[in-house]
Backbone:
């Protein structure tokens, strides 16, 4: 179904850089592919990741059928969802956790996942209404339907950043077209190949591949694939509206209702569905730690005066017009009199302009969308839609706001001319026409259009400068919050995040644990082998810790040889298991440099949030006490402390002295 060569995709997979599931999600996916997997065995694996448990139950209860008992356990969720849905949910949530950022400068990773989340929730709602797919599987299709964009940003960060920069400034270009020019493949092809490789149903990969063309030629109308394509197109457009700037949302509403009509969904029903989607988006955003936006009700957006009432808003915002060659305009002539059209065509062609003709206002509306004229010369009195109504309608749409309009009329009444100017006319000419006067008015119009284009170029330059400034600010912010040696968050970032997680855990009564990790006898390594070797040790240790911990855990370097790991939705027992895994992984690593081979170990202190603690600093301090206990007991150990009514209670430790 796709044009991506299979051998080429296998080569991309072999590179190891394609986005892929990690940790517990990978174990779930592998297990669900077995024919002999049991629900109890799968449930046991899932329970090792408390964050996934919460998300799985949330997905099961979202949009719950009326009368169905809310799901509260993993076993019930597995029964309701079935293995395919659980596998794809694990895949999606793992990718969100693992690929929250990356090296592609112009790719908005947070925005990508937030927009994909809207599409996922919308697909779930539309699947439930149309019965075109199991709702939870449709959720995953919406979440992963643009995964090819993330893959290209991951595979080719610098080159894809250039492509994204190009799409910002080159109007009329499509992202897929630029991708094919740069990489000989586009995100639709790569998405379809990845979904198929992950074992999603073939119908999902086909739908993702054809979504941007809405499957009009690929699938017969009314079939299940056709319904899925329409639902996915609506879902992604709802996502576009949610992520758009406040002042642009109302201009996008007409097209939403047009897309909804393909599924025979009326505007009122679709608006109500979209309001439920945005509410769920905010709830899911908090659960997945993704930024969301405040979106007014869709009914309000539909009634906003800025929404075009006649012409649907275009999918891609364009500049006023293409650059005008010297002394050449694209001119639309609108007149119901054939002889007048011929006279104007001859005069304009003699001046070297490109001429389009329409016989009435309705025809001119359609033609203006296709040819995007710089200037329109229109008669006043015409059947179906007169010149003033045509101008008034065009001025409400983006395509007509920058158009220079010349009205041709035999009426010389002053009040009528004032009415024409008030409705958007730029200039007028009286009949009969004079070639020299027409040429002079065309030159005057051309000067105005050129000034408009200069203003638009200045605005584009300012937008480009603002985008570059935003990128620079993000880089500076990253530098301010990142440890340059390990790439981890630094102490300042860790303390800010600890405060956020503390507040969230307190507010929602969820568990929160913390680890403080210290490299054993690191000063001796520095003193014996020098700081270069010491830096190498820190990099190797940090990489090992990152591999051993989970995607949801926040790891930071506190300074020197000390690290901290914040573990949301994690109790003390689970945190101890994670800490022991990290200790074991570090212990097993051999650090080589030249002829030197070193083995190092870490001591880890663990603590869990307790009601007696006052402030996030108390949790860090308790973990630090656990670290002291591990060091005291011989290093290369994991030890935990927990606050109790009579002070600090020391728990047992694991590891070897």
Residues:
């Amino acid at each position: 179904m796709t044009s991506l060569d299979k051998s080429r995709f296998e080569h991309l997979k072999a590179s190891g850089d394609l986005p892929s599931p990690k940790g517990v999600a990978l174990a779930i996916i592998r297990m669900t592919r077995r024919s002999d997997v049991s629900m109890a065995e799968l449930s046991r694996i899932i329970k090792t990741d408390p964050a996934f448990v919460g998300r799985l139950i949330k997905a099961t209860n979202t949009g719950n059928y009326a009368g169905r008992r809310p799901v509260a356990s993993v076993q019930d969720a597995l029964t309701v969802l079935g293995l395919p849905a659980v596998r794809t949910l694990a895949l999606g949530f793992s990718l969100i956790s693992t690929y929250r950022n990356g090296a592609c400068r112009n790719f908005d990773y947070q925005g990508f996942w937030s927009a994909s989340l809207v599409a996922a929730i919308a697909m779930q709602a539309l699947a439930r209404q149309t019965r075109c797919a199991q709702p939870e599987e449709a959720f995953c299709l919406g979440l992963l339907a643009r995964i090819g964009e993330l893959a290209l940003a991951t595979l080719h960060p610098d080159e894809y950043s250039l492509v994204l920069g190009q799409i910002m400034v080159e109007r009329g270009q499509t992202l897929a077209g630029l991708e094919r020019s740069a990489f000989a493949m586009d995100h639709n092809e790569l998405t379809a190949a990845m979904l198929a490789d992950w074992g999603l149903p073939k119908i999902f990969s086909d739908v993702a591949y054809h979504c941007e063309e809405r499957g009009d030629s690929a699938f017969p109308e009314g079939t299940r694939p056709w319904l899925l394509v329409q639902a996915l197109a609506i879902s992604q457009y709802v996502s576009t509206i949610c992520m758009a700037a406040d002042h642009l949302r109302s201009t996008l509403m007409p097209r939403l209702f047009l897309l909804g009509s393909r599924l025979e969904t009326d505007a009122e029903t679709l608006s109500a569905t979209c309001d439920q989607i945005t509410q769920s988006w905010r709830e899911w955003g908090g659960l997945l730690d993704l930024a969301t936006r405040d979106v007014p009700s869709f009914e309000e957006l539909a009634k906003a005066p800025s929404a075009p009432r006649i012409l649907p808003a275009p999918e891609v915002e364009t500049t006023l017009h293409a650059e005008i060659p010297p002394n050449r305009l694209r001119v639309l002539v609108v007149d119901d009199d054939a002889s007048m059209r011929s006279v104007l065509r001859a005069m304009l062609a003699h001046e070297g302009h490109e001429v389009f003709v329409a016989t009435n206002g309705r025809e001119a509306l359609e033609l203006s969308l296709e040819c995007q004229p710089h200037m329109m010369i229109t008669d006043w009195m015409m059947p179906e839609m007169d010149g003033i109504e045509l101008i008034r309608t065009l001025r409400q749409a983006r395509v007509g706001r920058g158009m220079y309009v010349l009205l041709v009329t035999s009426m010389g009444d002053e009040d009528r001319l004032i009415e024409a100017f008030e409705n958007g006319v730029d200039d007028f000419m009286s009949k009969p026409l004079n070639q020299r006067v027409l040429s002079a008015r065309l030159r005057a119009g051309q000067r105005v259009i050129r000034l408009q284009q200069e203003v638009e170029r200045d605005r584009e330059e300012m937008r480009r400068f603002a985008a570059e400034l935003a990128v620079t600010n993000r880089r500076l912010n990253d530098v301010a919050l990142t440890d340059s040696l390990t790439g981890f968050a630094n102490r300042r970032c860790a303390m800010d995040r600890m405060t956020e997680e503390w507040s969230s855990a307190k507010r929602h009564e969820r568990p929160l644990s913390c680890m403080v990790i210290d490299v054993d006898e690191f000063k001796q390594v520095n003193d014996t082998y020098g700081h270069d070797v010491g830096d190498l040790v820190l990099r190797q240790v940090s990489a090992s810790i990152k591999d051993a911990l989970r995607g949801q855990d926040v790891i930071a370097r506190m300074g020197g040889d000390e690290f901290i790991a914040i573990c949301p939705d994690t109790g003390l027992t689970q945190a101890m298991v994670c800490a022991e895994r990290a200790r074991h992984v570090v212990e097993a690593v051999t650090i080589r440099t030249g002829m030197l081979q070193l083995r190092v170990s870490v001591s880890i202190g663990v603590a869990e949030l307790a009601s007696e603690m006052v402030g996030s600093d108390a949790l860090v301090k308790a973990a630090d006490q656990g670290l002291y206990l591990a060091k005291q007991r011989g290093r290369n150990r994991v030890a935990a402390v927990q606050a109790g009514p009579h002070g600090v209670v020391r728990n047992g430790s694991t590891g070897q002295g």
